[in-house]
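Folds vary. Our protein:
___
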Amino acid sequence: MTMPGAPNPELRWHIPPVRSRNKGARQAEGHWSTGATKLKRRRQGMFTKISRRNAATLLASAPLSMAQSQSGWPAADPADVASVDAIVKASYEAISQPGGRAAQYERFQSLAHPTAPANSIRQQGGGPVFAPSTVVQYIEGHRARMAGVSVLEKEIHRISESFGSMAHVWSTFEATVTTKGQTTTRRGINSLQLAFNGSRWWIVAALWDFETPDHPLPTRYLGA
């Protein structure tokens, strides 16, 4: 993928011919053409290197303020990203599905930086399994699995640390899921890394795990 504003790797530079009528001019033409050819090759080599860079790497190195314009990422409601408290609250509201209505996926996506991972720990085969994912992949999977299912997810306790323009939120949550008349409630912890770019907060990384009988939530993460 070619980033907006990046040179087209297929671009070919047009070098106008030099027409000469005498030996001196033809020698000059040959000298000039050799130099122009070298310049052309250097330019093409530079563009080829640029075109081979991974687009995600380029986006990751871009300032947070440029993320939306470079990727077409949905714009966030300013109120949702004005503070750490606001962005955490918005994330729970956006992913909930009261009464089985679809989650606010675009709103949820707008809270996260395009390069942010949305990873989880799952229990599989009797043990924990790390499940890496992007925000878009997470949304696609959630949409497919939870269609028509009532999901109410809320924060029940939080521990936050911050320094400069970054913050870490250790957010204990409770999720109530109702499907086919049966309701189950699960608890877990969302680990969120946040960054502030001078105008808004971004979720730049997310990792969560659910409580299990073998690993109950410690009382210090329940506000007790």
Q: What stands out?
A: The first helix runs from residue 23 to 52. Residues 1-53 form one domain.
